[in-house]
Amino acid sequence: MAAESGVCLQVEVQAHHEQKRVCDSRAKYRDGRRPRAVKVYTINLESRYLLIQGVPAIGVMKELVEQFALYGVIEEYNALDEYPTEEFTEVYLLKFQRLQSARVAKRKMDERSFFGGLLHVCYAPEFETVQETREKLQDRRRFVARATSDKARNAPERKPEATRNTGCPFESSYPESDASLAHGSSYNSQLQHSSPTKSGSTVPFARIPEFNQSCTPHSFPILSDSNPVAHKGNFQQTTEPWPLEKNPQTSIPIQTNPSAAGSNFLRFTPRTTQLQERQRKREHRNALALCGSSSDNQDIVIGPKLPEMPKLDMDDPSLNMSADFIRDKLKKVGGTPLLPKLHNAAEDAQAEAPKKQRRRI
Amino acid sequence: VSAHSDRFQYLQALVTEFQDTDSAEAKEQVLANLANFSYDPRNLSELRRLQVADLFLDMLTEDNETLVEFGMGGLCNLCLDKVSKSHILASGALNLVINCLSSHREETVLSAVTALMYLSCAASHADITSAPVVECMVRFSLSNNRRLRNLATIFLEDYCSEQQVREAQDLHTALGIPLPHSTHT
């Protein structure tokens, strides 16, 4: 591994590092909000490794890493001294723990100004080891298998109708060939078996962001993710695409709360169980209220969004007031959600600040 | 109007423009759009209805290398979908994908290698690991281009038998399949 990382840092300028000329000749209906070059992203081009160019050479590595860590856990970071740069700038290589974090970070940080420089962020798959590439390909395989099998399960009767509607011979020829292949295929069946067990422990939390963000490297007008609510609902959308499409009038409003919606929906539960369940939830909520932490745990934590800071009761109205003030201030200053680490530090500071104030009095 | 029919209409507009336009530039842009949309499984049902897989396959025989690259990228994104996969295999297009292995464009070759791995199944396995392909992968696995080397190594280790690899290694001195141009040279 040590040898591997040594090799890792051989740096060469690659075509996909270059910033392509922005395309300014797109027809209006397919011209997105952000100017973009014409480029096709595949799983080969994506990577947990990001190359950050254009970082001002003023010793801001710590700030840079902190900024990027807002989008996910960073496993490694390096300055690439050998990489040719523009004058007074540096190039860094970051390795995220998850591909999804790298995607979001790239989208959010590319072309952002940073200490007076304009960052150019691109994927750097050439730093991957064979095993990392292999896992990336397998993850993609599993992800698509899950996404498509969800659809199939929810809409078994949809296919013939679609064929009728569109009169499309292409689709009608699918089922038999599909079936024969699916049954004969060792890879497919392997996948079907492995995906539930393998991902069992991580579902749904680890998977949801992928559903939500799978379109992120390519932001197009209709898939734009400007709306965080719609975004959260995407998981629901993927699992229930057919009713939405089939009948707009009765279409189910997008669920903002996946965990609240699906769980008790289909299963029959006796009245007594329901009441017990309600009671249990109420108690749980009360308990949380007593602890003073924010009660609404229905929100699934996605990506950089972290749970709200627990509100401590300082046992004194004036102390509570100053604690609130500090909390608000921190929120404003933070702007973006804080890291777990910073989080603790912030809490400590918060606990300490009022004490100091008291001493002064 | 539901998000799905919006999406369908949008994708349909792209396909229509692609077929109607005479501008090579617009063709490339729209093809890139469609290829990128293929990356998201949420678009799969719409893309199937619009027969976008066939559109991508058509591009593999174009003279314009950019169209080939984008078409191959689109296939690479699309071919994990079982329905599209069986359609691609059933239409006998595997050879078109294999031909892309000898492209001079890095991304085209990379997309082709990945697509071949994703298209592999019991029915297609023999064609995908035919001697010339394995031999080609052996060469790629010795390339200076790390991305290509990684993919070829995975292909040889995960999809080929040891014997296949050995035979290809013996053969590989005899045949001369050109490596894609590395981008930095």
TrEMBL record, chain A:
Designated gene of the protein: RBM48
GO biological process: mRNA processing; RNA splicing
GO molecular function annotations of the record: RNA binding
UniProt organism field: Leptobrachium leishanense
Cellular-component GO terms for this entry: nucleoplasm; spliceosomal complex
Record field: compositional bias (Polar residues): 183-202, 247-262
InterPro entries named in the record: RBD_domain_sf, RBM48, RBM48_RRM
Function of the protein: As a component of the minor spliceosome, involved in the splicing of U12-type introns in pre-mRNAs.
Keyword list, A-Z: mRNA processing, mRNA splicing, RNA-binding, Spliceosome
Protein name: RNA-binding protein 48
From TrEMBL, chain B:
InterPro entries according to UniProt: ARM-like, ARM-type_fold, ARMC7
Transmembrane feature ranges: none
SUPFAM superfamilies the UniProt entry points to: ARM repeat
Protein name according to UniProt: Armadillo repeat-containing protein 7
